[in-house]
């Protein structure tokens, strides 16, 4: 009996070790610098121009910039790597070259990484990870939801790199059963920030909480962080190379390193500001430039010397701004101290923001830059631009955006037809989807040079993102047909849909002021006929207020009892080939014939 018990206890004692062994996960490791295309976002120069893979300045300036600037340029602040995977865990291991923490900034901010997932509705979701800081730093993100409810193709991930340390090497691991797909750097023009320690990221708790990173998520745009702790001084050597980058906007936020306490006299400061702006204008005559005032010190209410320092610097900034505007410098803007409005509890040491302060900075920047770029947002989802990845089983949304951007730049279209899957599946070139009405499209739309800008499963807010991110820029269309909103029916009220369409039309008019806009009512669909009829009345009224043409070709699908004719649909929502032919009979009279081009030019 004793022998039996001993054997039993021995077996039980081994069970935890056996279970642990079975739970061990094998990983496949990916080194980003070995990718065949650029994947490190946040760099203004190609890899071939850099001394090290994770540098922020090109090798050509090593001898011209001051040594502290060059050394800080090796810090990976602002760099991020995107990839897609259907996985419940991600492991990151890497080596840095400097101290892992600072007295006023934790190791997670100085040397840590930060991971965000982007779901199929375009929401950025933070991922919590467990970390160890040794010779090799490791972050392990577990318990991740591999997919959302739309498909099993996984999620996009964005990995932010250390703010105040240099990355020697880095690998990203996923379980061997998982496919990790690297994503290329985004094609949108970046926001370029030249700044100080605050913009570099001091003292964020983690890389994703530096204000340039927050701003990048808010605007969903690449940001290039050229901030150098204690050394953002509007120096000629940096200003001269900023135009190498084809920026969406240049941000000059260097006043914290140019106050009197740093040895900068008022006349010298004014000269630095005006010379920097004029230098940028010589090579980039139209790109917006945003000058930023000193945000102040949180002890400014009690320390008169410190308060005087930032007040004096801001007075000089305002004088320089007024002088430049008076000299006719266009597209020049200023973000004043009052607009940043830092809370008294928003810094670690009176100067460097906490995460709260970083959020306040980012909020102020977002408000300012949205006005400059004419990209307003509203309070409801239909007024907030978003990407999406809902129809991944059929096509890749981001790839289609890249293809459309290339197409409109290489061969500007006469007419745009903007929509969702109903448009996407109709016909045209390189749609990436199975076409259901190619014959009718080729017969009528192709001769009119209509470009299909339909994206499967798009909603109003997704089209707004596409409009804000360049699909209508750089050319002039003669007409734009807009048919969107059916995918909002299950999520939004009629008022939200109608208001969203009005908001979207105004955004289109801003970018294509000479194009005639044809606003198409939402097509009837199974079990939604009555609601859609009422909603289209609201949309028609909005179209009148916007001075655009509104039509309802979808009535061709209705029977006498007000229900859809199922014979013209494949699924009660998408028309079949005959449905598209019938739709076109109602739509064609409103499309601009080629002869209209010559009349328009006259």
UniProtKB/TrEMBL annotation:
CDD domains: SGNH_hydrolase_like_6. InterPro entries: Ester_Hydrolysis_Enzymes, GxDLY, SGNH_hydro, SGNH_hydro_sf. Residues 1-23 form the signal peptide. Keywords: Hydrolase, Signal. Residues 27-177 form the SGNH hydrolase-type esterase N-terminal domain. It comes from the Bacteria. The keyword Acetylation does not apply. Residues 188-370, 417-581 form the SGNH hydrolase-type esterase domain. GO terms for molecular function: phosphatidylcholine lysophospholipase activity. Pfam families: GxDLY (PF14607), Lipase_GDSL_2 (PF13472), Lipase_GDSL_3 (PF14606). This is SGNH/GDSL hydrolase family protein. It comes from Spirosoma profusum.
């Amino acid at each position: 009996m004793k022998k039996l018990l001993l054997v039993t206890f021995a077996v039980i004692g081994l069970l935890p070790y056996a279970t642990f062994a079975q739970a061990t996960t094998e990983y496949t490791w990916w080194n980003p610098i070995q990718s065949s295309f650029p994947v490190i976002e946040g760099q203004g120069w190609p890899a071939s121009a850099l001394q090290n893979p994770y540098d922020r300045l090109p090798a050509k300036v090593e001898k011209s910039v001051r040594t502290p600037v060059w050394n800080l340029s090796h810090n990976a602040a602002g760099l991020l790597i995107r990839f897609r995977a259907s996985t419940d865990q991600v492991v990151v291991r890497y080596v840095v070259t400097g101290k892992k923490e600072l007295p006023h900034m934790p190791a997670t901010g100085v040397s840590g990484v930060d991971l965000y997932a982007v779901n199929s509705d375009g929401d950025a979701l933070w991922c919590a990870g467990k970390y160890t800081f040794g010779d090799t730093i490791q972050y392990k993100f577990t318990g991740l939801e591999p997919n959302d409810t739309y498909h099993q193709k996984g999620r996009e991930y964005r990995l932010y790199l250390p703010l105040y340390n240099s990355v020697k090497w880095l690998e990203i691991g996923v379980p061997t059963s998982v496919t990790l797909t690297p994503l290329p750097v985004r094609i949108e023009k970046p926001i370029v920030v030249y700044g100080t320690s605050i913009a570099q990221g001091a003292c964020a708790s983690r890389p994703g909480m530096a204000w340039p990173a927050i701003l990048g998520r808010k605007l969903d745009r690449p940001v290039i962080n050229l901030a150098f702790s204690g050394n953002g001084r509007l120096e000629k050597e940096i200003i001269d190379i900023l135009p190498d980058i084809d920026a969406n906007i240049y941000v000059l936020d260097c006043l914290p390193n140019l106050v009197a306490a740093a040895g900068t006299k008022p006349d010298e400061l004014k000269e630095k500001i005006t010379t920097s702006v004029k230098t940028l204008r010589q090579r980039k005559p139209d790109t917006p430039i945003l000058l930023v005032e000193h945000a102040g010190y949180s002890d400014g209410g009690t320390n008169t010397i410190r308060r005087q320092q930032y007040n004096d610097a801001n007075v000089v900034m305002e004088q320089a701004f007024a002088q430049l505007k008076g000299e006719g410098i266009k597209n020049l803007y200023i973000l004043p101290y009052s607009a940043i409005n830092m809370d008294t509890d928003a810094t670690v040491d009176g100067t460097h923001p906490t995460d709260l302060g970083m959020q306040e900075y980012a909020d102020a920047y977002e408000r300012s830059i949205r006005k400059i770029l004419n990209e307003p947002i509203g309070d409801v989802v239909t007024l907030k631009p978003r990407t999406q990845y809902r129809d991944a089983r059929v096509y890749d949304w981001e790839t289609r955006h890249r293809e459309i951007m290339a197409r409109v730049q290489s061969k500007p279209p006469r007419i745009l037809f903007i929509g969702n899957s109903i448009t996407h599946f109709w016909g045209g070139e390189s749609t990436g989807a199975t076409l259901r009405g190619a014959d009718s499209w080729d017969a009528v739309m192709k001769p009119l040079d209509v470009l299909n800008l339909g994206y499967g499963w798009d909603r109003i807010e997704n089209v707004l993102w596409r409009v804000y991110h360049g699909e209508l820029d750089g050319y002039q269309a003669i007409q734009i047909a807009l048919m969107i909103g059916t995918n909002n029916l299950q999520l939004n009220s009629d008022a939200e849909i109608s208001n969203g369409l009005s908001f979207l039309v105004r955004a289109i008019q801003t970018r294509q002021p000479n194009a005639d806009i044809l606003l198409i009512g939402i097509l009837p669909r199974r079990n939604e006929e009555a609601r859609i009829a009422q909603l289209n009345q609201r949309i028609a009224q909005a179209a009148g207020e916007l001075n655009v043409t509104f039509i309802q070709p979808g009535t061709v699908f209705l029977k006498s009892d007000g229900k859809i004719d199922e014979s013209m649909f494949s699924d009660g929502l998408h028309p079949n080939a005959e449905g598209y032919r019938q739709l076109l009979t109602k739509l064609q009279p409103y499309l601009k014939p080629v002869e209209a081009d010559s009349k328009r030019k006259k």
